[in-house]
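Ligand-bound model needed. guanosine-5'-triphosphate.
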Amino acid sequence: MCATCGCDTNTSSAIQAGEHHHNHEHNHLHGKTIIDIEKDVLYENNLLAERNRGYFDAKNMLALNLVSSPGSGKTSLLEKTLTDLKGQFDFYVIEGDQQTSRDADRIHATGSKVVQINTGKGCHLDAHMILHALQGIKPSENSILFIENVGNLICPAMFDLGENERVVIISVTEGDDKPIKYPDMFHTSSLCIINKTDLLPYVPFSMEKVKEYARQVNPELKFIELSCTSGEGLSHWYQWLKEKVLATVSI
Ligand SMILES: Nc1nc2c(ncn2[C@@H]2O[C@H](COP(=O)(O)OP(=O)(O)OP(=O)(O)O)[C@@H](O)[C@H]2O)c(=O)[nH]1
Ligand SMILES: [Mg+2]
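Prediction:
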């Protein structure tokens, strides 16, 4: 259960089962209260996201929010990127995980500046957490900030962090139907990275189908196919990144 966004299973099942129409005062009030809290949480989050956006603008930064299901390769992609593009840009990383500093340790090993956020019972990062992390990490002007969100294809879609771009990563082992099963995440992203292409010979995954499904929920979505393990396709990601830097950051 998520402690902050109201997405816990009890809430969902109560709403799906239509318990707010049930002639029982407690359930009725209970359901109504939960919906109000969710509205308030998102309203406050959106205000703080605007504040973060202003901070990124003022510092002439590019901030990217990396979202995906657990294990699709977010940290692997960052490790590669920070190593291969070392010296070309000033990088900062905010790591979001429910527990441990394992991902931050991996990023630290590349020599980049990183801060870990543990969300505990929460299933996503929110704008307030990013605000605090920025006060700690103090990114320099003209830098690139990567925010690795908690591995979860649902809740992080609701929470604007103030980022310039949201990048959704899907790996070929997850199945090609994910965009229509979890449409919000693909709808709110501008780039979809399809990772682990080295495993394509071993899994039933159609590149055409995943793109077709993703375009159904977001016709504007761009795609990059790559493998963090073999390195194939990484140059396209670096090219995309450089174009975004040129468009956003004037170094
Ligand atoms: N075969 C293959 N494995 C990969 C590739 N990229 C990542 N992996 C493996 O996938 C696993 C998960 O990778 P991570 O980078 O930790 O994934 P993540 O999205 O950061 O995971 P969470 O932070 O837990 O959500 C690791 O065992 C990686 O070595 C790839 O391109 N090909
Ligand atoms: Mg990770």
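The chain has nine helices and seven strands.
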